[in-house]
Amino acid sequence: MCGKGLGRLPPCRNQKRCALNQILVKTRLGRHIFGLFQAVIPNFVFACTIGAFSNLSTQSQLPMLWKNRDVSNPNQAVFFFAQGKYRYLGLVYADDSTQVWAGINEKGFAIINSNSANIGPGANSGPSDGEIMKYALQNCASIEDFQHFLDSTNLVGRKTPANFGVIDSTGEATIFEAGAYQYQRFDATKESLGFLLRANYSMSGDSTQRSGHPRYLRAMQLAQIGQSQGILNAQYIIQKIARDLGGPDFDPYPLPFCDTFGSYPFGFLPTTATINRYRTRACVLIVGQPKMPMMWTILGEPCIGIAIPLFLNAFAVPPQISGPGLPKICAQAKTMRELVYMGTDLGINTFLLAAIQKQTLPLENQIFSLSQAQLEDWLNHLPGSLAVLSFEESLAQRVCEVYENIGWGEEKSFPIFHSNILVAPILTTTTNGLKIIIREKITNENLPIRFKVYNIFGQKKAEITLPAQTQSYFWLPEKLSSGTYFLILEPNHQIVAKFHYLSENRD
């Protein structure tokens, strides 16, 4: 039932990847429906969204950094680096550790970034943003250290205009809006809310060119809600902000989305301008815990994945997250993403997404609870690195098992259909038709009764228009294949019935 959960979904434990493979085969059939939309999707490939939260703004009174990493390459990993002045954890491409895209070091200094489109072009020489962050993690112990480094790169230039979010052990959080040869500093503690957010533009740049502005507005809305409720913490930011599929004036929750958005199929949502985007490949939430620096990590799209805590004190990263090669968790997340996007980048099937989250969120909630309890114990008695790594590996293994056993049947992927207050038809299928008996009164007796018929992929396959006050009708489908279908009442898109149709052609 839309908005009320999908019921318990049985993991297909005894049939090797049967559910995933079955759905993957089926989704190939639905790809053609997205062809019309491909030309209108903006090419904001590197469209990250970030936040820098000072210790004055968070529930824990610890500084935090958040980043949704939006890039074309889905192959992500987290490595532990021992090279340089300071040891650190870094988010990287699985096959390239020469640049780092988010991380925290042993001094409690952490850094993230988003590209900026309105502070001019980059320089022809100098370091790129990924090289800047790698150097900073190796050599900077504080925000002031990083600012001195930026001063030095002002001379040689920076190739990539970017917003750099940084925190350190003092609890401060700062964003540097860095162009090719200059930068502007913004301190979160000087802001009324105590935190700063950025999409893909800089506040110091051209105000007429604000790439990703709807993402910024939506993230600001959600962050202020969390702060006003006293729950602006790692779990809230990951579950309510990083995963968000809404907009400043649009809230699709709770999932599944039981309506039609523009020209998209029923239950599908576009993710081109949302915080959780179709090219969000990873999410990190860094907590500036002085004794136990940590980085919550999701490899893959946040709305699909499960967050895992990584502590610098482990001095290593579980192989499920670091590799060698493509980390297992990243590979599994890519498979699930293929399902909910039906093999495209153009719209997410919220029915399948809700089915996945029904199985992933319980474990993630457990991980947050277990990690908090474990952290409290460790802060009283600092652990050895092997104990920390063992804890992380146990969580990573549980995540892999849940991903491996994601399962649903055709009956469970979509809501259980309920009696509708407007019209509750009784459906009887015959050899080649469908008998519709309307057993409840229509609110407006003078208007025709209109239904649409959708298949399990959200494709509209037929329309049925009945005269007002119709009580019984026999519908003979034309060119309808055998399968499971849903009857949707227009114009309010209430799902009123499900039926299984067997074509006389036995196709």
TrEMBL record:
Peptidase C45 hydrolase domain sequence ranges: 64-204
Gene3D superfamilies noted in UniProt: Penicillin V Acylase, Chain A
Signal peptide (from-to): none
Top-rank taxon: Bacteria
Transmembrane annotation, as ranges: none
InterPro entries reported in the protein's UniProt record: Ntn_hydrolases_N (IPR029055), Peptidase_C45_hydrolase (IPR005079)
Pfam families reported in the protein's UniProt record: AAT (PF03417)
Protein name: Peptidase C45 hydrolase domain-containing protein
Annotated source species: candidate division WOR-3 bacterium
Lineage: Bacteria, Bacteria division WOR-3
